[in-house]
Queue: 3 jobs
Job 1
Amino acid sequence: MQEEYDIVVIGGGLVGASFACALQRQGLRIAVVEQFDLLKTGHACYDDRSVALAYGTRVLFELIGVWERIAPEAAPIEKIHVSEQGGFGVTRLDHAQQGVEALGYVIENRLLGAALYRHLDDRLQMDFFMPAELSGFRRENDRVSVHFVHQGRECAASARLLVAADGAQSRVRDWASLRTTTKDYGQSAIVCNLTPEYPHESVAYERFTGSGPLAFLPLTDFAEAGQPAAPRCAVVWNMPHAQAQQMSVLDEGAFLQALQERIGYRLGRLLHRGKVNVYPLHLVKAETTVSPRVALIGNAAHTLHPVAGQGFNLGMRDAMALAELIATAAGRGEDIGGEALLQAYAQSRRQDHRRVIRVTDILAQLFTFQWPPLRLARNLGMLVTDTLPGCKTLLARSAMGLDGRLPGFRQ
Ligand SMILES: Cc1cc2nc3c(=O)[nH]c(=O)nc-3n(C[C@H](O)[C@H](O)[C@H](O)COP(=O)(O)OP(=O)(O)OC[C@H]3O[C@@H](n4cnc5c(N)ncnc54)[C@H](O)[C@@H]3O)c2cc1C
């Protein structure tokens, strides 16, 4: 006996859950199959990993009515300061010059996920299978039959569309025989949260160092039990694998000193560091994002280097573009998993994918070269960008995710 749905989503991570939020008022039957129990989010902790949301992503969350749940937990980025260690160039972006409340926001993944699931919980249009793991799927005429193991039991569901939001190692993508191109950057990202002496004043620092790009992102203050709230920044530091391994095992004092040498004293002394995590960095790009009855969104379609903080933002635009096409097709009584809709989705996302992947890929490599003429050109580039308002606006709009068409979907 198969349960019948309009859509089955594999993967209830940030992109899968955002997609479900976008469609929850469309009268469609949706199932979300997720291998971890994300409905139980646990308590926020100092070390939670975070994500920088572009301003354009905020606009999308507003359109689907979720932003007001996210906003109280999100730290605004009012200014961005880009520089190179030992260089003379600097580029500064300011929210006031761009006429927006903030250039972006930083929020812990756990809190963003919890806000999305609270929103989904309010309307009971959907079935969540968690923890559950996909075991296979088969296309049958105008439907797809999906098999998964939920709490140790074999389950089956049938749907008109299977949406793969199952991340970088997407099984759906592999089983649908959608080919990928991959690139190993030979780098890892060191990620941790830390407390500086001075408040961050909502400034994000992007600093290019000899070992790789380093980002200090403003986070909400955090209070350990019985302690007053202290300022907190999220650090993402990219460097060659071997160096990242060495850095990750340094004790707190040596680690903070190494960081302090790179960032300087803009934030005063670096006082405390939380747990350090290391992520190897690859580019994974699906050659096409659709196959019969299947669409890829988020990291299943593209996994990026984090240097520009664009992975989730790009995935959110996938989710919204697909949701917009589905809502329109459903309203007209058309097939929501048919070839026409899938091709329209793939076509609508191609340019944004190409552009963001290209820019991220260039940035990931550009600042690793220390050849003096290239350093000079980079620093001149930063200075010119800082002095020419037109260049600055172009850069700011790109960082805010506003340089392409935003899906116009509204609930
Ligand atoms: C160090 C670092 C920093 C980053 N910073 C930023 C940033 O500042 N801004 C930004 O926009 N992006 C950033 N990113 C990228 C961002 O984290 C990802 O793009 C985003 O989280 C992808 O979300 P997703 O839902 O597509 O995939 P995932 O988060 O990987 O979610 C996939 C989900 O599918 C589930 N799943 C997988 N396989 C199965 C299966 N077989 N059955 C059932 N469920 C399954 C998983 O459990 C998971 O919950 C960063 C990435 C890294 C590594």
Note: The chain has two domains: 3-75+103-182+283-399, 185-281.
Job 2
Amino acid sequence: MLLYDLVNAKRTHFSPNSWRVRMALLHKGLPFEVRDVLFGDIPSIHSGGDKLTIPTLAHEGRLVTDSWAIVQHLDAAFPDTPRLIAAGAEGHVLKFFQYWVQNTVHGGIARLILRDLHDGLDPADQAYFRASREKMYKQTLEELQAGREERVDAFRKSLQPMRMALAHGPFISGEQPGYADYLAFGGFMWARVSSPFQLLAEDDVVHAWRERCLDLYHGAARQEAAA
Ligand SMILES: N[C@@H](CCC(=O)N[C@@H](CS)C(=O)NCC(=O)O)C(=O)O
């Protein structure tokens, strides 16, 4: 299997949506190779068809794009490995959690680190990233990130559902990590490799959970250089 993944100028992997898939592959114990790409390379990955995003997984002559579709594909293609997305209602609730991560975790983090992320990108990607993200957020990257020291407390408060879940076990999924953990952790990896800004207080249970996630699978995520 080949995972197409984004890299910045230092060749570190920063995509939050890829980190959830990387953790899923590690959870399942599936070997994979990585093809590093820049934003500017994405259109050349495929020949026609739907627009691809990162992550995209190449497996048995097929390209699977979108992190949720990739994990569903892995569950179906490798039935002897631990399943990450349950069928039926449980899977739908997990999808709801993905939406929460996208809005609250990714949305919150973007407003704290996106200018730093831009500065760390390969120079070939910076103009595209700035133009596309400024259009998306209707603000300059400088405006988006301004005043973050005063705003970080509101972001920390927004993570309260994670603290409530972590009162019941070391992981959001309980005693063992599951896809809910990888969904949220992807956002924190995105921040960790893109910006030195301190997102979490050290006495926060979310901080302790993030450390546990960094230690999983022989510290796979910790090996990625932090900004
Ligand atoms: N829903 C998709 C979102 C993927 C996505 O937006 N990926 C970003 C990188 S993290 C991307 O490929 N962006 C391409 C671009 O902005 O041109 C997933 O979870 O895989």
Note: The longest strand covers residues 2-6.
Job 3
Amino acid sequence: MAALVALRVLGLFAGGKRAKAPRLPVTAMGLEFGNPLGLAAGFDKNGCAIQGLAALGFGFLEVGTVTPRAQPGNPRPRLFRLAEQRALINRLGFNNDGMDQLAARLRTSRRPVPIGVNIGKNRDTPLPRAVDDYRLGFAALAPYADYITVNLSSPNTPGLRALQEPERARELLGALYEDRAALERRSGRRVPIAVKIAPDFAPETLETLLCVLKEVACDAVIATNTTVERPGVGHLRTATEQGGLSGAPLGPRAREIISKVFKALPEIPIIGVGGIVDAAEAWKHLLAGASLLQIYTGLIYEGPGLVHTILAGLGDRVRATGHDDFASALSAARRNLSSGEEPNMVKLS
Ligand SMILES: Cc1cc2nc3c(=O)[nH]c(=O)nc-3n(C[C@H](O)[C@H](O)[C@H](O)COP(=O)(O)O)c2cc1C
């Protein structure tokens, strides 16, 4: 991908210097972030462009999804643009270099911002053995990750989303949280585990999954992955392509899920992702309950300047609440919203 090559080069020249991003410090999952805006999984699957991406001003990066063994992903074409809607449909299918390559890269690379590592299963691993793949991924990568994301929600690996069913989720997450405890006993470091969920749920399925997440004391929920539905784009010919839809049309649906997770599990931090293409949309995800944010498709359409544009817009909204720090501004804005008061920053959208 040309953008990744350019970012690798930028990383070489940035030499550790980062463009000055507005400071909006956030603490979540026991980690400190310089600002709440991260790069979503899938953009830098193999951790090749960490320095260049950090230089764009992101507060954190999520690399992967990586699987135990390298795999080529689905045949091309597998990525489709819906440019007017600022959306993409992808069915890449976890093309990646495998966990050992990524571990080797992370072992030797500087980490200028917190790095999350998103793990999944190989396409040819049968579903009943999926737990083995995730445990291998955790063992190989947790030592080099600030947090691990368990991806249960990509639509392009057949059967993967079935891991969101309560019994399967309980078995998988139970095993990973045990491995995490064992690692903590050995190394003294507790690696947070986040769970990335889909936007496409029957209401009862989401509720039961959230009960499991509460039971295992999940460290964070990432909401959401791409959608297999076609909200607002169904009339387009490209919309018939199989795969997950991302970008602007996903925003309202992702926010609905964020808001349900926030109501059900107010104590668990949410990383809000899906359809953030400007600061107004980013702020809405935060008001719905997200503590941190991620972007992918917006970056493709708006370019790397989007990181600063969003952070500057969030800075304006924080100041408009009259609070100095991000966390108090956000709680105040959420309180205003629930009490029906018209917050000042609505004018900024
Ligand atoms: C081309 C492409 C590849 C993606 N690959 C992954 C992936 O490997 N793992 C994952 O968890 N999410 C993946 N995603 C989903 C994104 O991380 C994100 O959840 C989704 O695109 C919604 O955010 P956005 O609207 O800002 O793009 C991918 C998205 C796109 C567009």
Note: Residues 342-349 have pLDDT under 50 and may be disordered.
